[in-house]
Amino acid sequence: MILYLHGFDATSPGNHEKVLQLQFIDDDVRFLSYSTLHPKHDMRHLLKEVDKQLKLSDDPDPIIVGVGLGAYWAERIAFLCQIRSVMFNPNLWPQENMEGKIDRPEEYVDIANKCVAEFRSKNQGRSLCVLARQDEVLDTARVAEVLAPYYPIVWDDEQTHKFKSISSHLSAIKAFKDRVSVA
């Protein structure tokens, strides 16, 4: 089972495309929607929804795949639910770059402060991060600097922030899902 978390643009047709692409890895891809506007509510909602989906599946190695803001949540929710995640261009600092777009961006700081201390060191190797060199929204070099000590980083030279096509990374995602080293 693959759980897919959309980015800030929940209605983008690219989300459907990514779900279709992920079905080449696993027939069971489930799209999980959340508001994107209310961080604390989104966290509670996603924790409940992921727990529910895990109980409804017999997959011994489910993963969460997220793009942008969805990747922010994928890393944290996967850690809390004790599964692995794949992040495409994770927005690690929504409190900095989403002001004016979401209600209460400061809640992201509160969430980070209340999260398990040093959670990335406790989650080491349990996430795969794919970054676009052409990301027009995020400083992916900054993202890589933060995440590289904990997770394998795969660079993409073609895609932009929304990662319209993830097809060139499907084999790496499959290997990661199947617990094969991708580094």
TrEMBL record:
<dbReference type="GO" id="GO:0016787">
    <property type="term" value="F:hydrolase activity"/>
</dbReference>
<dbReference type="InterPro" id="IPR008886">
    <property type="entry name" value="UPF0227/Esterase_YqiA"/>
</dbReference>
<protein>
    <recommendedName>
        <fullName>UPF0227 protein GCM10023333_24650</fullName>
    </recommendedName>
</protein>
<dbReference type="Pfam" id="PF05728">
    <property type="entry name" value="UPF0227"/>
</dbReference>
<dbReference type="InterPro" id="IPR029058">
    <property type="entry name" value="AB_hydrolase_fold"/>
</dbReference>
<keyword id="KW-0378">Hydrolase</keyword>
<comment type="similarity">
    <text>Belongs to the UPF0227 family.</text>
</comment>
<dbReference type="InterPro" id="IPR022987">
    <property type="entry name" value="UPF0227"/>
</dbReference>
